[in-house]
Amino acid sequence: RRRRAAATIERGGSVRGDVRMERLARAAAAAAVVCVFLLGVVTPGAVADEETHRYALGEYTTLWLNKVGPYHNPQEAYSYYTLPYCRPDAPLPATQPATKFAGIGEVLEGTEFVNSGLDIRFRVDVPLADVCTIDALTAEQAEAFSEAVAQHYWYQLYIDDLPLWGMVGEGGVVGSGGSGSG
User: Fold this and answer.
1) Cys staple from 69: which of 37, 39, 77, 131, with CB 3.0 to 4.6 Å?
2) Across 81-88, average pLDDT
3) 114-154, pLDDT tens digit by residue?
């Protein structure tokens, strides 16, 4: 302690000031430990949701649609519904947000979270069913998809903050037992 005091005086400082700063730092560290402990004890009883990543059986889980763009130029990104994807027939429940704000860095990258409107429940199996219908694509819509496939467009979705990627025009064929183009 004497060596520290001598070094402090040599620098032109005050021994009392250093002691006060040391005590203040210890108090701040103790307060941080208490906060972390309280967060660990209090939050398990909190309501499960997308923020806590804990869900109750049957709880609504949001599938967020993000963006589409060419694979070879990831900075070129568009809103998911820029392509004429089919939208769910059922309206979005009033309790669910239509969009979700991303951080400033994600916004600069072109991130735009849009609620898919799909009724996805945690650990609840559902039978295979159509979620939306479309009679036929117009020539303009077909050209948009054709161009997206030719340009190797990818899409990005999120569920519980986990990203899902896929290539436009690729996927499994329902009922074939294998993969194919769809």
Assistant:
1) 77
2) 88
3) 999 888 899 999 999 888 888 899 999 999 999 999 999 99
**List of residues 6+ apart from 1 with CB closer than 8 A:** none
- Report the Cα–Cα distance between both ends of the chain, in Å, rounded: 74
State the Cα–Cα distance between residues 68 and 63, nearest whole angstrom. Answer: 15
Q: How many CB atoms lie within 10 A of CB 168?
A: 22
Give pTM, 2 decimals.
0.63
Calculate the alpha carbon distances from 160 to 21, 49, 67, 152, 157 in Å.
Answer: 42, 9, 17, 26, 10
Q: Could you give the C-alpha distances from 116 to 34, 55, 84, 177, in angstroms and in order?
A: 40, 19, 14, 27
Distance CA 29, CA 2 (A): 25
